[in-house]
């Protein structure tokens, strides 16, 4: 047993600093994102000078550097002297309602009022008074903004604040992996949030290769990673999504495989082996944080794939594909059983397109032998694992007790 523990504390022959390979690590310079950083800085500079800035919406696929760039900018702002603005950086996976967002703002800046029992209006008035006290500018950064359940109410509340505040103001920055979520917004919320829109494109293979190479230089022992391994990890990630997070996960898992095998190098063989499990892990993370109704749709597909569906009777080939119309009907039943309002078929089709774009499902148009024109859809990952994952994350989510999250007044 002692020898076993001793091996855990042995110096790695592969890794020099694993933290550098983490998706949460913010490098001193973010490669290939100078333009995006400059655009964000230009948009919020008025707020830093004490003027009301423009609201900004930032979007791009997972792993394109949105959060890293925003956190990098926040760090730079906090180093500046004489800045008139205060910042609240809010993870909307956690603070996913208007009440929770306002409570987080109060916790950040006026903690003496961040207590249980205050209603939305009470917290709102405290924030307004705090802003007015010293003619402050408040920048509210809403990361994964599409996770907020009552987003229209939140946007209305924060934008209305600028009418109620006699001096100072509030600027919103929304960040999302899905540009299409704006179609869910009320037109007034849309015009408020989208004063300036910034897109983050996926990284290409050369960019991903440079990003991996930079992190490998700090995270791995010198000379351990074969240059061909870097190129392969970049190519796999570029082909799938242009996702830097996936690229770093692949090279990290490849390093772990090499370490487990007592190897002194990370070769393309380990990269190829690591890629499949890394892709699945990223996919499960994405599923875990999908908006509620998208998760219900994925859950419906998983159930139908596992337990059977009508299309099986129509096709002797691959029976893992499901008819889009059947999926909608099953989703409708599940939503009703959970007392949730079913989304329209128009929104359902958009959700299917989102899921397809994120690589969670595979779809194609039906051909001969199937009545009418529909889509055939299948999951890109094991349905049983997806079913279990969603049951843990969706059906066991616990809301704050009613007394902790008062109803809107």
Q: Uncertain runs with pLDDT below 50, 5 residues or more?
A: 313-317, 398-404
Oligomer: single chain
CATH architecture of the largest domain: 3-Layer(aba) Sandwich
Number of helices: 15
Give the domain tally.
3
Class from secondary-structure proportions: alpha/beta
Strand order of the largest sheet: 2-3-4-1-5
What's the CATH topology label of the largest domain? Rossmann fold
- Give the integer mean of the pLDDT values: 88
Q: Name the shape in a single word.
A: globular
Radius of gyration: 24 Å
Commentary on this structure:
The protein has 409 residues and is of the alpha/beta class. The protein folds into 3 domains: 34-199, P-loop containing nucleotide triphosphate hydrolases (Rossmann fold, 3-Layer(aba) Sandwich); 203-287, Orthogonal Bundle (Helicase, Ruva Protein, domain 3); 292-393, Winged helix-like DNA-binding domain superfamily/Winged helix DNA-binding domain (Arc Repressor Mutant, subunit A, Orthogonal Bundle). Helix content is 50%, strand content 10%. The chain is built from 15 helices and 8 strands. It has helices at residues 2-8, 34-48, 66-79, 98-109, 120-133, 151-164, 187-193, 205-219, 227-240, 244-260, 268-288, 292-307, 324-337, 345-357, 383-393, and strands at residues 56-59, 85-91, 137-143, 169-176, 196-199, 322-323, 361-365, 375-379. Strands 2-3-4-1-5 form a 5-stranded parallel β-sheet, sandwiched between helices. A 3-stranded antiparallel β-sheet has the order 6-8-7. Strand 3 (137-143), helix 6 (151-164) and strand 4 (169-176) form a beta-alpha-beta unit. Helix 2 (34-48) crosses helix 3 and helix 6 (151-164) packs across helix 7. It is globular, with a radius of gyration of 24 Å. The N and C termini lie far apart (60 Å). Mean pLDDT is 88; it is low at 313-317 and 398-404.
